[in-house]
Design goal:
Distance between the termini: 8 Å
CATH architecture of the largest domain: Roll
Structural class: alpha+beta
Helix content: 10-25%
Order of helices and strands: EEHEEEHEEEEHEEHHEEHEEEE
CATH superfamily of the largest domain: Diaminopimelate Epimerase, Chain A, domain 1
Largest sheet: 17 strands, mixed
CATH topology of the largest domain: Diaminopimelate Epimerase, Chain A, domain 1
Strand content: 35-45%
């Protein structure tokens, strides 16, 4: 099988979130794909299961080290870029992925950005402040009381937690046992914390994401989670209106600084969510089974 490694939501190599994408893997079943993903041990690994376009898109499966998932953000952008470069073989403006969550289009712009339109958001329950604070190793008053702690999904559910400032976000240390107890049996198992302060000039928001239930202690760049955040920011008018157009920093605590761009707007009661970033090729090779 041929494979490609890309850094997604990065501005240079060795930043952003790593992605392994495999081609010519039609003979693999799900169990074998899971073994490969566990061996690679990135946040996600993707498999393009057919080079042929079907219903206007390309069949793709996504695996974390622990399980297959219906949707994830940086694998969607990174795999679309591989399809564009190495399956289609020319710089088309749009690539559609056939994922378990449904068809997800990725649009490429002249400035080198890739943008995905995520699924219409769904909003779940609010979580109790004291419980969440304990799981994050914080006092309850470190959580921003202006907005709820809420489950949100634009394809992959996350718990969205607003914090008071960058210093608070940086000092979070997850209590794994309390975290696992908090998300046990929950719709949203991943936790995204954010604050309205950037890591560097030009950023408006900083984020950290903890997908511990999926075998990942912390993720350096999470397109699915940031899509949930964009929907949350729009719904709760966190920026003064339902319109969202922000630059988010993530991954700094892991030494993999990441840049994600979020857009959202509401029309006729429906929120539209877009997440963008860059895909940086790192290497390619052959994988022998």
């Amino acid at each position: 099988m041929h494979f490609y490694f890309n850094d997604v939501f990065a501005r240079r190599k060795f930043a952003g979130n790593q992605l392994a994408t495999f081609l010519d893997c039609e003979g693999l079943d799900g169990e074998e794909m899971q073994k490969v993903a566990r061996e690679v041990n990135f946040s996600e690994t993707t498999f393009i299961t057919d080079r042929t376009e079907k219903n206007g898109g390309y069949d793709v499966r996504i695996f974390t080290p622990n399980r297959e998932v219906d949707f994830a953000g940086h694998p969607t952008l990174g795999t679309a870029d591989v399809i564009r470069r190495h399956v289609i073989g020319r710089e088309v403006d749009r690539v559609v992925l056939n994922l378990k969550v449904g068809q997800v289009p990725v649009d490429f712009t002249l400035d080198g950005m890739a943008w995905m339109r995520q699924m219409p958001p769904r909003f779940g329950k609010d979580l109790e402040r004291n419980m969440v604070a304990r799981a994050l190793g914080l006092k309850p008053d470190a959580i921003d009381a202006r907005w709820p702690i809420q489950e949100v999904s634009t394809g992959f559910p996350h718990v969205i937690v607003p914090l008071l400032g960058l210093r608070t976000l940086k000092r979070v240390k997850v209590d794994v046992d309390r975290y696992l107890e908090m998300v046990k049996g929950a719709w949203a198992e991943n936790v995204l914390i954010f604050c309205m302060e950037g890591q560097e000039e030009g950023q408006q928001i900083s984020v950290r994401v903890f997908p511990i239930s999926h075998g990942i202690p912390e993720d350096p760049a999470t397109g699915s989670g940031n899509g949930c955040l964009a929907a949350y920011l729009s719904k709760h008018r966190c920026l003064g209106s339902s319109d969202v157009d922000v630059h988010v920093g993530q991954g700094y605590e892991l030494g993999r600084p990441s840049s994600l761009y979020l857009k959202a707007s509401e029309a006729e009661g429906q929120i539209s969510v877009f997440v963008g970033g860059r895909v940086i090729p790192v290497c390619e090779g052959e994988w022998e089974l």
